[in-house]
Amino acid sequence: MSRAAVLAGIGACLPPRLVTNAELAARLDSSDEWVRSRTGIAQRYMADSSVLTSDLAVGAGSRALKSSGHPHVDAVVVATTTPDRPCPATAPTVAGKLGLGHAAAFDVSAVCSGFLYGLASAAGLIAGGIAERVLVIGAETFSRILNPADRSTSVIFGDGAGAAVLRAGSSTEEGALGPFDLGSDGEGVDLITVPAGGPPPEGGWPDPVPDDYYFTMQGKRVFWLAVQRMGQSAQMVLDRAGWRVDEVDHLVAHQANHRITRRLADEIGLPRERAVSNIAEVGNTAAASIPLALVHAHAAGTLRPGDRVLLTAFGGGLTWGATTLIWPAVDPS
Q1: 109-157, pLDDT tens digit by residue?
Q2: Is 13 labeled as catalytic in the residue annotation?
Q3: What is the Cα–Cα distance from 232 to 239, expressed in whole angstroms?
Q4: Which single residue of 81, 84, 146, 314 could bond 320 by disulfide (Cβ 3.0 to 4.6 Å)?
Q5: Domains of the chain, with CATH numbers?
Q6: Given 254, 258, 296, 298, the catalytic residue
Q7: What are phi and psi of 122, to 5 degrees?
Q8: 296 in catalytic set
Q9: Tell me: the pLDDT tens digits for 192-226?
């Protein structure tokens, strides 16, 4: 029996402000029907200006720690595209607010793949004997980087945070994370990006315009690449885990778009009804989407102990990844 990272607790946090499609349609050339038919989204939550990414991360992290039944961890990993500051990382702030003393803390930046990258990082810390318990959080205030006049992005994304506590355990017990597959393709850097989001290159930006400081995405190309890369990554970890596709009880993919999730299920040969979805309620929450989907599915009774779960994500970078998990008995957060 090899040492493995085992899921011990989960938690979520959403800001209080709920924004419906109707509210957005009032200022965009759009409608509730248009948004629902293309994305599957009915509403999303958005943080007020006083709410930081770290605030949402602390909310989700505290619930995950309570769910795990243990108040302390050795490390905190925060996956986010929208840190409180460019420097320093948000994770040390979160660790401090949670009263975790001098726990190791760092951020992971892989956009919508961030939580999976964070899980892999935590699993490595545990497998290497560096940590016994790790708190992994996906947290976003993505609404801050959206162009309010761009209906192609402003109707899709929401804010929120989800978290998981991993503990050292055996690879044979329920909750143990299975094999990981991670990948990237830097040639797709401009497909999902904030064009002027960093320091200017030598000589300055070439005539930057205000829109360059907002998030942009080439939706059609991203759609097909997401299905392809997540499908390939998912099949890779299934093969490594020795699972047949028909043995998978639930697919929990990054909640990007309900059409992507359904096409992905088709791509890997899984019935669409086995794909977990909460995008209608919270929208695309980037790095927070997978843990939020896990928390909501657990609360609904969809995820039951012993269920075989396949996780996969695709995000900017381009980045992607997948892993497997047999769902454990965890306390509600």
Answers
A1: 999 999 999 999 999 999 999 999 999 999 999 999 999 888 889 999 9
A2: no
A3: 11
A4: 314
A5: 3-170 (3.40.47.10), 177-326 (3.40.47.10)
A6: 254
A7: -65, -40
A8: no
A9: 999 876 666 666 656 656 778 889 999 889 999 99
